[in-house]
Predict the 3D structure of the following.
Amino acid sequence: MTFSQQIHLAVALEGAGWHPAAWREPDAVPAVGLLSADYWLDQVRTAQSGLLDFVTLEDGFPLQSDAASGHDGRTDRVRGRLDAAMVAARVAPLTARIGLVPTVTTTHTEPFHVSKTIATLDYASTGRAGWRAQIGAQAAEFPLFGRRAPAPDPADLFEEAGDHVEAVRRLWDSWEDEAEIRDVATGRFVDREKLHYIDFESRHFNVRGPSITPRPPQGQPPVVALAHAALSYAFAARSADVVLVTPHTPEAVAPILDDLHSAQDTAGRSAQPLLVFGEFVVFLDADPAAAITRKERLDEADGTAYRSDAPIFAGSPDALADQLAQWAHAGLDGFRLRPGTVPRDLDAIVHGLVPALQRRGLFRHAYEAETLRGNLGLSRPANRYAPARAA
Amino acid sequence: MTSSGGTPLKQIHLAAHFPGVNNTTVWSDPRSGSHIEFESFRAFAQTAEAALFDFLFLAEGLRLREQNGLIYDLDVVGRPDTFTVLAALAAVTSRLGLAGTVNSTFNEPYEVARQFATLDHLSDGRAAWNVVTSWDAFTGENFRRGGYLPQEERYARARAFLHVARTLFDSWDGTEIAGDRQSGEFLAEPRPGRFRVRDAFFDIEGSFNVPRSPQGRPVIFQAGDSEEGREFAAAEADAIFSRHGTADAGRAFYADVKGRMVKYGRDPDQLKVLPAATFVLGDTDAEARELADVVRHQQVSGQTAIRMLEQLWNRDLSEYDPDGPLPRIDPDLGEHTVARGRASVRMHRDPMATAREWRELAEAKGYSIRELMIQVTGRQTFIGSPLTVAEAIDDLVQSDAADGFILVPHITPGGLGEFAEKVVPLLQEKGVFRTEYTGTTLREHLGLRPLPAFDEGAAA
Ligand SMILES: Cc1cc2nc3c(=O)[nH]c(=O)nc-3n(C[C@@H](O)[C@H](O)[C@H](O)COP(=O)(O)O)c2cc1C
């Protein structure tokens, strides 16, 4: 292949890996280790040693379940998890380059709290925070808060999500970069002309602002959204910097890009960069047959063949590198890979796939920037409130 | 270690309050660093841990303060998110307790319980929650509930909130995760974390998704001062953050709150009373007094003095000269409108009486507005040589005015260093402060009994 666009790579960290039987693998972390900081730190450090752009951390308020009603009665799968934003914060001071993108739902949370959480993660990581914004649509999560009837219309949840992200973004800009002046002569710590009420009002929110937390180092930490269909494409087009999509063939990429671009037009955001990442669940072994057999063995342990919203790849890192090159050529900017099991598939991404991509001239040999935006090739945005003052 | 009378000496608890958003913090000092950058928190926490402190403490304020309708700009403004900072600090400390102030009015209990349970896991048992009940509509404007409460409901909600949180913490008893790879049994119990609460504030149910944390739950702090606040502490808290750091007020408060515990069937030793305390050290007491005066003048500039006076007078006094006499006009007794977003204005319960006292004092001593404010808004709790300060702290603890202190340095992040270096060793020599951490959890540092593996009572 002559085509040599640089691709971006992220991994999605979840449990012992994405296969439901991953926790039973002999090399998996012991079950209670899933709740230890070291387990998450090890994974992020591994991903960082592979020069990946970022890791995402899955999250959600309900106890994991395969049943929409909330309780599936299964005792053979991982249950229980930690707050993802706090895990990211716990890892931040001990890592240096990799982006940290926790999942935080828009459905039950306050934009005011989420904005300072991600801003503070950006401070603790010196510019490596992102936010994977996700709606919470399972019936079981509504009674945990008791504020509204279970499972409202998804259109409503996505509208709320869009408003939520908008409120958070305004709060990030509610302090101009130079608002803290520490002017001893006049006795003023801040220049209050550079602090802004956001007065955001929508059907779902009324938020006055300004934030209590100054503008984060990246200005606007990247917002990441997973999208599968029209409603979520519209949300991503309106709200995200990186959208994660799940085409199952390279031919399916172009129509998705079209949908996203027209959704961006509709949202009036066509001038904004929107990176499009493809998703894969991966089972990787140098011998492709071994990867396939391993996946089958895991399926057997679980009692069902593992399915996913994302395409599943089982094979060698080299074959995956070829496939990613082909899909990137179809128009994707990068990929978020979901390791089937940890540590094995995460290690294979870092020690197998990354060198294979590097050999093809498709992946960096060193981190190029200090911040997540920088590594994604996104510039630091101007503050939306600053020009108003200059005018 | 025992005193001459044979009764064992009380062990002192020490904590470090990250310098806050108020005029105690002297940002104009050239040594003063960022209140936002993580490096400041790291340096502060590591100093506290090297000095074997019990915990680090973060305050909270969810709206920038305003005065005369404008954002208040004379003090430090802005702070990072409490949970995020504490989780990050767990990475760079290993024993220090991590205490966060989190409001029960502008949050939902399921989310807050998850965050504290997570912090307890990520820190291996070092989490503490200071439950505060600030309720004002001014702060509520930042939240989707628009959520504020009538003042008299704040503790009812706080109690209900804490009850839900405890129910959630206890919804896993620590035995659910089997993790048997051979048999494929991850859970030993098919429906862990189930809960249901119906009361005047909450109607919620489901399964909590954070398994039981190392301490069982975070250590619970309370910082309210009203009748209801004290009752709440006596019933529910493991520790109180109080503002009564002097001998007489301290002893009265200590006896009062510990006395209230009996009716809840609680042992008074299981509630630690920890007043906030500021300090200024010098080589000699005289030098410390001089320094303390300099610091007070840094803390209360002329402009700050006028703003402080406005908080009692409840009206704009910007036309007054801080170096001149007090206004002749009286405080405005109407609804308090001049200063918003600060707890301290409610300390002035009878503005007319206070104004009268202040006028008398100013006349007797010939104080200007600024000098008066420097006098009446609080000199530092401990001023003196390291030995003087160590003795004062020890006396207050041994005489039951406190179980220890939450120290509030006036310089970020270095303001704790001198205390750690000079006062802590003296307390150790007296045998009243640890010379190494003997436990790993905050409960252990505070001398709180471990929780039963599972508290049946709270989950019922
Ligand atoms: C020493 C001390 C520190 C406090 N710190 C905070 C704080 O950081 N954030 C906050 O919202 N309230 C804080 N408060 C106020 C409250 O804890 C309390 O909820 C509020 O004053 C109402 O309760 P009360 O009427 O019982 O005092 C503090 C109070 C005291 C005494």
